[in-house]
Design goal:
This protein has 300 residues and is α+β, with helices and mostly antiparallel strands. It has helices spanning 6-19, 22-29, 33-47, 63-87, 103-110, 114-120, 137-140, 173-179, 229-237, 247-250, 285-298, and strands spanning 52-54, 59-61, 95-101, 124-130, 144-148, 156-162, 165-171, 192-197, 204-205, 207-211, 214-218, 221-226, 243-246, 260-261, 268-270, 273-278. The protein is elongated, with a radius of gyration of 24 Å. 24% of the residues are buried. Pfam families: HTH_1, LysR_substrate.
């Protein structure tokens, strides 16, 4: 059934832009494909310009379509959230909340609390995306993000989850037996580091230590490269190399006493960890619920 209102037609238009096809948009909106196509046609007739370039294989926004999407996306999001808020005013929070965060933040903040969250709020579906890159929530369609630092774009809100902490360097007895224990940063030239490569940028993270009050990058032999903190911990356990592990994460390890800290006075400090989201999103009940839960679980 087609919707002759501007709201309905804009909703169809934006869903087509997000999903990349009319059929996919129709499935998401749970309407017939001809109805979605007709709604788009009516909107284009009202506006007087085509909003998509159509071929037999794909559909792409025209310049007018890109401008309309940019100028109406936030307003439609706010309207949808307002309608959802009223609809569920006297009921338990419901809906999907999409969260983007790094593997480290997932392990530290979410991992051990998932079951409790879903037991308390069974009607909220969490969609969790692990990404080490800086993600634009609006462009990527996320509701919440967790990252270092509170420098945010206009229209965003940042809430501190964890205070500043250090990235520790750890080895095991097996490593010390084979390679010795470094006592100064200069000693590291003969040691081995478990390397980390960022998935998003494909960049290898250098070892950064605080030397004479300045963060200094060092080049060290890396016999193993990975893109996951758990692999770093596993490799360190097996004596393959020096592992870089954030202090809060180390406290979660059952075998933390097996890890030996080295060069502690040179450990690099990271800024606090923040939860961030679009300002108007916080009014949604489902968003308020997730935000309050995360703040509760990180409160010291």
């Amino acid at each position: 059934m087609k919707d002759n209102s501007y709201y309905g037609q804009l909703n169809v238009f934006q869903t087509i832009a997000q999903e990349g096809s009319i059929s996919a948009a129709a499935r998401k909106l749970q309407i017939a494909v001809p109805s979605a196509s007709q709604s788009l046609k009516l909107l284009e007739q009202k506006i007087g310009v085509p909003l998509f370039h159509r071929t037999t294989r794909n559909i792409q926004l025209t310049e007018a379509g890109r401008q309309l999407l940019a100028q109406t996306e936030t307003a439609m999001m706010m309207l949808n959230q307002a309608l959802e808020e009223i609809q569920h005013f006297n009921s338990e929070p419901t809906g999907t909340v999409r969260i983007t965060l790094s593997r480290f933040a997932y392990q530290l903040i979410l991992r051990s609390h998932l079951a409790e969250f879903h037991e308390r709020y069974p009607q909220i579906q969490l969609e969790i995306s692990l990404n080490d890159a800086l993600v634009n929530l609006l462009e990527e369609g996320f509701d919440l993000g967790i990252r270092f630092g509170n420098r945010i774009e206009e229209g965003m809100v940042a809430r501190k989850l964890l205070p500043a902490f250090k990235e520790g360097l750890y080895v095991t007895k097996a490593y010390i037996k084979q390679y010795g224990k470094p006592k100064t940063p200069k000693d590291l030239t003969t040691h081995r580091l478990i390397g980390y490569r960022f998935i998003s940028s494909n960049r290898i993270e250098p070892l950064v230590l605080n030397i004479d009050g300045k963060d200094t990058a060092l080049n060290i032999d890396t016999p193993l490269l990975c893109n996951d903190p758990e692999i770093i911990a596993d490799a360190a356990r097996q004596g393959i190399g020096i592992g870089r592990i954030f202090e809060p994460n180390m406290q979660l390890f059952e075998d933390k006493d097996d890890f030996i800290p080295i060069l502690q006075k040179h450990w690099r400090e990271y800024p606090p960890l923040y939860l961030y989201y679009l300002q108007h999103n916080q009014k949604s009940r489902k968003m308020q619920t997730v935000i309050e839960f995360l703040l509760e679980k990180t409160k010291k």
